[in-house]
């Protein structure tokens, strides 16, 4: 299989994309085999004592190999596909920029479709038919996706990667530090300031000049580099400047993902205490995160077919709403979502008090879980606006050599947000447990939590984060072709 894929990749110039697809499929094959073969499975848990024997040795190695291969492949797919898709459109034309904006919108839509199938159908198959069937379905899907991807290869516009963006960034930063410490003058600064004809000469020769943004990095371009391997071009320096300029915008989206982390933690715990019946059907609380997925699937076409056409007419721009405006709308929606979550929690606890079930979290409260859906609606909308906006922003602003790295920051923001959420919960519990007070988020009964205070805290934190975002967004100047101002 690897030989076939390598040959196809070489012929179609799709080495990176097919490599990460193959990595994911190999990981799923390993997991499917382990789930299928009894001798490779971990020992079954004791049904009476609910104790499980820890897996180790070769079985553990096989399990983690499969998991890490899948994680590596999925990370590569999510980092590469947005860039590959965005490059299929001509960004020098208004129609191409419109189509590119639509692509990023429906990219998030398709991610939501996959998540919906995963948390409903695949989970049901795993619970009722066995884990091997769930992994097998995923393996077949990734194989079919490879065939579909290859079917379009004759029409793809491919850009062959030239070097590693990480190497370029490290080289420029290291060259800047060493040249500055050794007092080596910037070649670009010296020539442009001392020679009045330098600008004209550079224009005639087709070379570029360094900009005044992050001027300290201009020291990377020295007349006599510290070492020949650290010799940097103007283009490399300017590329690194662009990446560093978008980092504050990226950082401001991490708090939003902290809020999203609540959807799969405290919101599920809240719903578990409420009436989760939908007619004769009882909805498992763990399946409630499907709500934001459904909301995204509904809102994405509405946004693209209704909101954006009106916005384009009003603003006279290609995308209707600029990338930074779209991210900002998402951040505002996350503030509203946390405020609604706090209000809903106050209502839920009042129902628990009035019904005499405050100390008994095992019985469902006489309040429908649909109240939780309001915060899901706003957080799902926030995710759609911010993720799609951030992907397009990073793609359009990043240098062509660093677009995959830039769009990968969106998923790094998600990972950092979920990790930071756990850190914030630990800090809140530590801070509120002083002076013999009960921690806000501790104990076996969620009715005794001060969850509404935590939600208000997240609301205030999101508000401060939005102000921080405004500071950077207002100062930011677009550089991409046809970018909105």
TrEMBL record:
Q: Where is this region: Disordered?
A: 183-210
- According to the lineage, what is the superkingdom? Eukaryota
* Positions with biased composition (Basic and acidic residues): 199-208
| Membrane topology, as annotated | Multi-pass membrane protein
Keywords of the record, alphabetical order, are: Membrane, Transmembrane, Transmembrane helix
Q: Which InterPro entries match?
A: MFS_trans_sf, POT_fam
- Membrane-crossing segments per the record: 103-125, 131-152, 246-268, 288-311, 323-344, 369-395, 416-434, 454-474
- Asked if the record carries the keyword Ribonucleoprotein, the reply is no
Which Gene Ontology terms cover its molecular function?
A: transmembrane transporter activity
The reply to whether Chaperone figures as a keyword in the UniProt entry is: no
Gene Ontology cellular-component terms for this entry are: membrane
Location of this chain's protein in the cell: Membrane
Among the Pfam families in the record, one is: PTR2
Q: So what family is this one in?
A: Belongs to the major facilitator superfamily. Proton-dependent oligopeptide transporter (POT/PTR) (TC 2.A.17) family.
Official protein name in the record = Putative proton-dependent oligopeptide transporter family, major facilitator superfamily
Ranked from the top, the taxonomy reads: Eukaryota, Viridiplantae, Streptophyta, Embryophyta, Tracheophyta
């Amino acid at each position: 299989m690897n030989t076939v894929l390598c040959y196809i990749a070489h012929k179609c110039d799709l080495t990176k994309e097919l490599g990460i697809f193959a990595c994911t499929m190999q990981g799923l094959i390993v997991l499917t085999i382990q789930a299928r073969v009894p001798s490779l499975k971990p020992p079954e848990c004791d049904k009476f004592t609910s104790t499980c024997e820890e897996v180790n040795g070769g079985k553990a190695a096989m399990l983690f190999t499969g998991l890490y291969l899948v994680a590596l492949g999925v990370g590569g797919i999510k980092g590469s596909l947005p860039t590959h898709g965005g490059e299929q459109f001509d960004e020098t034309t208004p129609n191409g920029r419109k189509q590119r904006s639509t692509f990023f919108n429906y990219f998030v839509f398709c991610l939501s479709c996959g998540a919906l199938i995963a948390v409903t159908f695949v989970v049901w198959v795993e619970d009722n038919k066995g884990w091997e069937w769930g992994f097998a379905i995923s393996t077949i899907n990734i194989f079919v996706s490879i065939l579909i991807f290859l079917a379009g290869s004759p029409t793809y516009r491919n850009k062959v990667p030239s070097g590693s963006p990480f190497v370029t960034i490290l080289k420029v930063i290291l060259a800047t530090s060493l040249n500055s410490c050794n007092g080596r003058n910037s070649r670009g600064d010296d020539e442009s300031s001392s020679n009045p004809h330098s600008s004209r000469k550079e224009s005639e020769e087709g070379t570029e000049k360094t900009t005044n943004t992050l001027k300290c990095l201009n020291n990377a371009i020295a007349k006599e580099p510290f070492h020949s391997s650290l010799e940097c071009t103007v283009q490399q320096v300017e590329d690194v400047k662009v990446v560093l300029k978008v980092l504050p915008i990226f950082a401001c989206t991490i708090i939003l993902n902290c809020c999203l982390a609540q959807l799969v933690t405290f919101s599920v715990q809240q719903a578990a205490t409420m009436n989760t019946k939908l007619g004769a059907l009882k909805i498992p609380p763990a399946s409630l995160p499907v709500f934001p997925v459904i909301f995204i699937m509904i809102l994405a076409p509405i946004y693209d077919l209704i909101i954006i056409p009106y916005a384009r007419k009003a603003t006279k721009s290609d995308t209707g709403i600029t990338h930074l405006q779209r991210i900002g709308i998402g951040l505002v929606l996350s503030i509203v979502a946390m405020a609604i979550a706090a209000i809903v929690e106050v209502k839920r606890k009042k129902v628990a008090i009035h019904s005499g079930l405050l100390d008994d979290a095992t019985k469902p409260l006489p309040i429908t879980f649909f109240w939780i859906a309001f915060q899901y609606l706003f957080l799902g909308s926030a995710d759609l606006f911010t993720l799609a906006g951030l992907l397009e922003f990073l793609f359009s602003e990043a240098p062509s050599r660093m677009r995959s790295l830039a769009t990968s920051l969106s998923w790094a923001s998600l990972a950092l947000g979920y990790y930071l959420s756990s850190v914030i919960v630990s800090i809140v519990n530590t801070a509120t447990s002083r002076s013999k007070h009960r921690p806000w988020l501790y104990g076996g009964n969620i009715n005794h939590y001060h969850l509404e205070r935590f939600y208000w805290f997240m609301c205030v934190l999101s508000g401060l984060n939005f102000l921080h975002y405004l500071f950077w967004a207002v100062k930011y100047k677009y550089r991409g072709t046809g970018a909105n101002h």
